[in-house]
Amino acid sequence: MASARLLSVTVPVAVVLLLSSCAGAPDADSGAADEAASSADYPVRVASCGVTSTLDGPPKRAVTMNQGATEVALALGVENQLAGTAYLDDSVPKRWRDAYESVPVLAEEYPDHETVLEARPDLVYASYVSAFDDEAAGDRGTLHEYGAGTYVSPYGCGDGAAPKEVTFDVVWREIREVAEVFGVPERARKIRERQRERLAQLRKERAGEGLEAFWFDSGTKTAFAGAGEGGPQLVLDAVGATNVFADVEGGWADVSWEDVVAADPDVIVLADAEWSTAEDKIERLKSDEALSKLRAVREERFVTVAYSESTPGVRLVDGARSVAEQLGALDLPR
């Protein structure tokens, strides 16, 4: 993902529309209609990727860019505070489907600057800083001038700006900060508690112990692999497996096919997205003369995980559970 300009600005966000009434998503507490107005202290000041926004009240016309950001908002039950969403990688889980469908979709991928402004947002929240490229939502400083705060996932900053700390605490920090912005901090705490319990169980089971894994995201001329500073690394750590490209900087990185062959992993994890399916990647591996000789390819030691469960966000623990279950079902050497 391309990086945005790193600047330090603090802007008030005007809140001009009334909050509509709507039921919360299943992961949220839906009892108090006025929670957003009463459970957080404003103004709320939030920094991400070197940019700071100050919100004078809870967003009422937020726009989410990328599936990870959208699903954090849905898990927090704030779909009634969204004016639009954009850019899915795969399908939204059934538990949030109705909430998702209640929000306008601004574009299949990134909407342009004019489309974003037409939604009259008071917040633009994205998983990747590329959402603020000139051909997408536009520069964050410019959006601030129009009265819209901005927020980017910590692992989506790009250009080495992501946290070097590769832990679920960073993932939960994003959920906490977004919940504070929307005025529902207690919901983030409950999500974290549930996920910590599930993660502790995965770490106890260690379904991937003794296994070396290659996380294949996409790519043909080179392999876009899960590297040592993002979602894939967190998932593999959670299940006790070793990432063969853990020493490569960034969350994802281009690596040569020669390096993949040299690593000869025990298992290959395939990210399944609409724009790069697991099936397509398996065909690529099997059809290449050198790659087809990998042990994992010959013996079909493949694990498939939804792309939306491989990126830092509210579903990353789901991805770890899925990987653990599939590893447990494979007949693998330890």
Walkthrough of the structure:
This protein has 334 residues and is of the alpha/beta class. It has two domains: 35-195, 3-Layer(aba) Sandwich (Rossmann fold); 207-329, Rossmann fold, CATH 3.40.50. The chain contains twelve helices and 13 strands. The chain has helices spanning 35-38, 67-75, 94-101, 113-118, 140-145, 168-182, 185-205, 231-239, 257-263, 278-287, 295-298, 316-329, and strands at residues 44-48, 51-55, 62-65, 82-86, 105-107, 123-126, 149-152, 212-218, 223-226, 242-243, 252-255, 267-272, 302-306. Strands 8, 9, 10, 11, 12 and 13 form a six-stranded mixed β-sheet that branches. A five-stranded parallel β-sheet has the order 5-4-3-6-7. Strand 8 (212-218) and strand 9 form a beta hairpin. The protein is globular, with a radius of gyration of 20 Å. Residues 1-25 form the signal peptide. Belongs to the bacterial solute-binding protein 8 family. This is Iron ABC transporter substrate-binding protein. Residues 61-334 form the Fe/B12 periplasmic-binding domain. Keywords: Signal.
